[in-house]
Write a structure and sequence with these properties.
The complex is a heterodimer of chains A (795) and B (264). The model of chain A has no long low-confidence stretch (mean pLDDT 97). Among the domains of chain A are: 92 residues, Aldehyde Oxidoreductase, domain 4 (2-Layer Sandwich), CATH 3.30.365.10; 147 residues, Aldehyde oxidase/xanthine dehydrogenase, molybdopterin binding domain (Aldehyde Oxidoreductase, domain 4), CATH 3.30.365. With 795 residues, chain A is α+β, with helices and mostly antiparallel strands. Chain B is an alpha+beta fold and 264 residues long. Chain B has twelve helices and twelve strands. Chain B has a five-stranded antiparallel beta sheet with strand order 4-5-8-6-7. In chain B, strand 9 and strand 10 form a beta hairpin. Classes of the chains: A alpha+beta (795), B alpha+beta (264). The structure holds flavin-adenine dinucleotide. Chain B: Its EC number is 1.2.5.3.
């Protein structure tokens, strides 16, 4: 009988290998782990945005039942500060301000939520009880809730090492050429906007367990991280001074990250350090409310920009001036987000001859701000795509036509932008055409008229975008201030009977890597998916790795696996040649079978791997036994996914409520390994993008309290708020990685917000609205409608 | 959560005894409001008196021209009750728009009405239908029961046992959800009863209140247009990051119109 195995390789929508575990509640998350004898930590956090700690009295707390230890900044001041992974330079070449970020506040708290003391007790409740009994006397200092306040002359100083609360004053592009372009412009369009601050809200709150073995001196940290090796490096080398050989970091199942679990957080250092002081495991699990004031937030830009156009609507130049909120301390990636992940994307999908962008990063008395799904690229895309719509309105051009006229030509790749990046491939015309077709753009006016009959305002919006991901070439990012390389590591271990274990430095926290990566192996080595296992997230198992963020896992991590598989196949061919008594040059390999070219003499991979581990008949003189290879892959360039998103909204006139009624995403993410997983990634990203556009906003009051500090006040989108997103792909291959893949994790969150907001503005056009800031809440939209109606009545 | 003791009586009498024995004891019914408060350490009861074991507090009964809902009746039971659906469809509908399915499976009418959250749904129906709140000691008319934000006529240790709703000629409800919590930003319950028309506003102010201008307008002319033009004053209404008092005042007119449409 001829059994045809189901195709499980590249391009197959196979079900996710991890789903059985997750859907049946058998995932193992950090909080599920209980170490024998573990104690529990509770962090006492500052209730004030900015305050001097005059006195801290823990005597009563120490006497409470179950208390094991109480630590303050006095105890941890000898430790290193939490390090920042990027160093930016100012316009004048001097390095950015990089104030110390203490593990526990030293004399001063700088945001609501800043750790002030740590209680370790037998139970979590006892730790919380004791934390409440600690008496802290604060001298409340002026809060710096907004960047404007922080930059005002005479403002209070958050850090002595950051005069004027300025972290850096940076620029990119050619100022003189840009000024010249504006001088000869036919029309200049100006636009100001705020990119709203977001709270990531991964489903699993952060958690960490420190453990210490005094007999070996080995420290172990279990943590909710997207990149355990990076945590080992940052915490071991900079904070706790522990050599890698004595520090194991495990990131087991992790329930979502969206960037917020990239960074090295104080709590990780606290539990690791406390465990070794106390000689027992110490566990900390974040509450949801605590997460709001301790997880790094995202976005938070205030920008002014100007676009110069000629008579025909061609773009001549772009000027951008951005303030970027860093929060109170520099989180791991924070400085690079509004610079190298933002300003370098300001050319978008357009042929823009010259760009000049200035970015000031500002310290405020708020939680740290860092990368959040898309990181910098959503901010750039939003700015540009709103600006282009404003330009279309003000020049009387059609919104689609102005884009087409300025797109980078499909034959212009590789395309060098004026802001450092070189796009390798793309086809913006095709993604646009496909999206217009799918979204029924041409028939929209009929739908608008239909909605109007029911008293609803209907609008349609478009966004055409490109992003840079698959980060990143180490030498390039090194020259830009990264303090680490951004390659990835993959090991292919072919076992004696031909099953395969893949070790990867990438980390899966919802992306389905265990499936996608296994498909790469199935495709190349011909091993059934059921016999391929992917191991990740443990520094003791995986040689090294830089982790998962910036849609890099497949483009960089997958490429490392391909390289390792090449090495495996090279070696296996030699073994097969020996077994088949042929010359290596004559051996062909295709999906699991080695063949002497032009003959029917074959050996299966399992036969070759068995020979490799049982080398009785083996070229032992020339070849080591075993069949396992490791590769480090350093990408040659970023990858550049792009595409077109079209959104259709309906607005209730009397309440201002905006509903997304249609959403079309046509993305070019390069080669697609598992279409089902890609579709899920795009839908999730679009959901977050719609959340940013319509609902989400972190709001601080003047005293620095987070008003939207829980789900009661922070609006997250729910299933009922989201349309069925139509997802399609138009593929151009990445030209510089072996898989031709680009990355799909962030495109949804990058492309969608401006499509939604362009639709909202379009729906409100009868009221003469030029721009609406995110989020477009019902109250905000009703105010616009109401004011517009009153103005029209008066006219 | 602070430590507390736990009791699960099986009669109203035992529950009342437990509750009156200690001023810091608290009743717990669905726990959908109390448990989050305990978890946030906003409350420190000595012990909880779990009402879920008291059979006499559960269920919906139709007797003559009134519907009686036991305090422990869960939102999901109100939503699915054939009696409620046929006699007061607006009340059954209201239950469907409270929270989410998990909340509706746990939360109870008694808990909601005892708590009197200004953004809750049920208080508007209780006041809007001129219902009677029955406790272990007495019967309280809805007009006397609600006393502003989280405040009711219930005395310490007094147990809400049931709510009696007179069956109206018609009633309707419309709610604008708070975009974050999905509680009520502004809602209006309207009812045409044998004692006259009642219009009650929830969510918009510090507690439920009757909108008398709208009551008069609807008494004269029961139609959506009759209320659409009536403006609610914004003074004293809630204002927060989700919407100003003016916005909420405006929503009152919109919701009133929808509620009348809903009532038919
Ligand atoms: C996510 C979420 C969303 C929600 N959304 C909504 C919404 O949209 N609309 C809405 O109206 N509500 C909403 N709620 C609240 C929900 O309806 C609760 O069920 C309700 O407020 C309280 O009912 P409970 O039975 O859970 O009471 P509990 O939480 O058990 O008790 C609440 C209070 O009432 C007291 N109490 C309880 N029963 C009695 C009694 N018989 N006699 C005297 N005192 C008593 C308790 O001591 C406590 O102080 C939401 C809750 C959650 C968690």
């Amino acid at each position: 009988m001829n059994v045809v195995a189901p195709f499980e390789g590249i391009g197959a929508s196979v079900r996710r290998k991890e789903d059985l575990r997750f859907l049946s509640g058998r995932g193992q998350y950090t909080d599920d782990i209980a170490r024998p004898g573990q104690a529990h930590a509770c962090i006492l956090r500052s209730p004030h945005a900015h305050a001097r700690i005059l006195k801290l009295d823990a005597a009563a707390a120490r006497a409470m039942p179950g208390v094991v230890a109480i630590y303050t900044g006095e105890d941890t001041k000898g430790l290193g500060g939490i390090p920042c992974g990027w160093q930016l330079h100012n316009k004048d070449g001097s390095p950015m301000a990089e104030p110390r970020h203490p593990v526990i506040a030293e004399g001063k708290a700088r945001h609501v939520g800043d750790p002030v003391a740590v209680v370790v007790a037998e139970t979590r409740t006892q730790a919380k009880d004791a934390a409440e009994a600690i008496e802290v006397e604060y001298e409340v200092l002026p809060a710096l809730s907004t960047m404007k306040e922080a930059l005002a002359p005479g403002a209070a100083q958050l850090h002595d090492a950051a005069p004027g609360n300025l972290c850096y004053d940076w620029h990119i592009g050619d100022k003189a050429a840009t000024d010249a372009a504006f001088a000869r412009a036919h029309k200049v369009v100006r636009f100001e906007t705020t990119n709203n601050r977001l709270v990531p809200n991964a489903m699993e709150p952060r958690a960490a367990i420190g453990d210490y073995d005094p007999t070996t001196g080995e420290h172990t940290l279990w943590t909710t991280s997207q990149n355990p090796h990076v945590i080992r490096l940052l915490m071991g080398a900079f904070v706790l001074n522990i050599p890698e050989s004595r520090l194991r970091v495990v990131a087991p199942d992790v329930g979502g990250g969206f960037g917020s679990k990239i960074y090295h957080y104080a709590e990780e250092a606290i539990v690791t350090w406390a465990a070794s002081k106390l000689n027992r495991p110490v566990k900390w699990t974040c509450d949801r409310s605590e997460a709001f004031i301790s997880d790094a937030h995202g976005r938070d830009h205030v920008t002014t920009c100007e676009l110069a156009l000629d008579e025909t609507g061609k773009f001549l130049g772009l000027r951008v001036d951005t303030l970027a909120n860093m929060g109170a301390y520099l989180s791991t990636f924070a400085p690079c987000v509004p610079t190298y992940l933002y300003a370098t994307l300001l050319s978008g999908v357009y042929s823009l001859p010259t760009i000049y962008a200035e970015v000031k990063a500002v310290f405020t008395s708020t939680v740290a701000v860092d990368a959040y799904r898309g990181a910098g690229r959503p901010e750039a895309t939003y700015l540009l795509e709103r600006l282009v719509d404003v330009a279309a309105a003000e020049t009387g051009m059609d919104r689609v036509e102005i884009r087409r006229r300025n797109f980078i030509a499909t034959d212009a790749f590789p395309y060098q932008t004026p802001v450092a990046l070189q796009y390798d491939s793309g086809d913006y015309f095709s993604t646009l055409d496909a999206a217009l077709e799918t979204a029924g753009w041409a028939g929209f006016e009929a739908r608008r008229a239909e909605a109007a009959k029911e008293g609803k305002l209907r609008g349609i919006g478009i966004s055409t975008y490109v992003e840079a991901c698959g980060i990143a070439p180490s030498a390039v990012v090194g020259s830009l201030g990264a303090r680490a390389g951004l390659y990835e590591v993959g090991t292919i271990r072919v076992h004696p009977t031909g099953s395969v274990t893949v070790l990867t430095g990438a980390h899966s926290h919802g992306q389905g890597h265990e499936t996608t990566f296994a498909q790469l192996v199935a495709d190349r080595l011909g091993v059934p998916l059921s016999q391929v296992d992917v191991v990740h997230g443990d520094t003791a198992k995986v040689p090294f790795g830089m982790g998962t963020y910036g849609s890099r896992s497949l483009a960089v991590g997958g490429s490392a696996m391909v390289k390792a598989m090449d090495k495996v196949v090279d070696k296996a061919k030699k073994i097969a040649a020996h077994l088949l008594e042929a010359s290596v040059q004559d051996i062909e390999f295709d999906r699991g079978t080695f063949r002497v070219a032009g003959t029917d003499r074959t050996k299966a991979l399992a036969e070759v791997s068995l020979a490799a581990y049982v080398p009785h008949n083996y070229p032992i003189e020339e070849l080591e036994p075993g069949l396992e290879e490791t590769a480090f892959y350093d990408p040659k360039n970023f990858t550049y996914p792009g595409g077109c998103h079209i959104c259709e909204v309906e607005i209730e006139r009397d309440t201002g409520k905006v509903s997304v009624v249609n959403f079309t995403a046509v993305d070019d993410v390069g080669r697609v390994i598992n279409p089902m997983i890609v579709e899920g990634q795009v839908q999730g990203g679009v959901a977050q993008g719609i959340g940013q556009a319509l609902m989400e906003q972190a709001v601080y009051d003047e005293s620095g309290q987070l008003l939207s500090g829980s789900m009661m006040d922070y609006s997250l989108p729910r299933a009922e708020d989201l349309p069925m997103v139509s997802v399609a792909n138009h593929v151009t291959l990445c030209t510089h990685n072996p898989l031709g893949v680009k990355g799909c994790g962030e495109v949804g969150a990058i492309g969608s917000p401006p499509a939604v907001m362009n639709a909202v503005v379009d729906a409100l056009r009868e009221f003469g609205v030029r721009h609406v800031e995110m989020p477009a809440t019902p109250a905000k939209i009703w105010n616009i409608i109401n004011a517009g109606a009153q103005r029209m009545a008066a006219e | 959560m602070y430590d507390f003791d736990y009791h699960k009586p099986s009669s109203v009498a035992d529950a009342v005894k437990l509750l009156s024995a200690d001023p810091d004891a608290r009743a717990i019914s669905g726990g959908q409001t109390l448990l989050p408060a305990l978890k946030h350490r906003l409350n420190r009861p000595t012990y909880l008196v779990d009402l879920s074991g008291i059979a006499e507090l559960r269920g919906v009964k139709r007797e003559g021209d009134k519907i009686t809902v036991g305090a422990m009746t869960r939102h999901i039971e109100v939503q699915n009750s054939p009696e409620v659906k046929s006699a007061i469809p607006a009340l059954a509908y209201m239950a469907t728009v409270i929270g989410d399915i998990q909340v509706r499976n746990r939360g109870t009418m008694g808990g909601s009405v005892a708590n009197n959250d200004p953004a809750a749904d049920y208080p508007s129906a209780v006041l809007g239908l001129g219902a009677t709140v029955v406790t272990d000691k007495r019967r309280i008319a809805a007009d006397d029961y609600f006393q502003g934000m989280f405040t009711t006529a219930l005395e310490p240790g007094e147990l809400l046992v049931a709510i009696e709703f007179p069956i109206p000629e018609k009633a309707g409800y419309a709610k604008m959800r708070n975009p974050a919590s999905r509680y009520v930003m502004a809602g209006v319950f309207v009812a045409k009863t044998k004692d006259g028309v009642r219009v009650v506003v929830n969510g918009a102010g510090p507690g439920v209140f009757r909108q008398t201008d709208m009551e008069q307008a609807l008494s004269a002319n029961w139609s959506p247009d009759a209320v659409a033009g009536i403006k609610q004053a914004s003074e004293g209404l809630n204002s927060d990051i989700h919407g100003s008092a003016e916005y909420r005042a405006h929503l009152v007119s919109v919701m009133a119109k929808r509620a009348v449409t809903d009532a038919g």
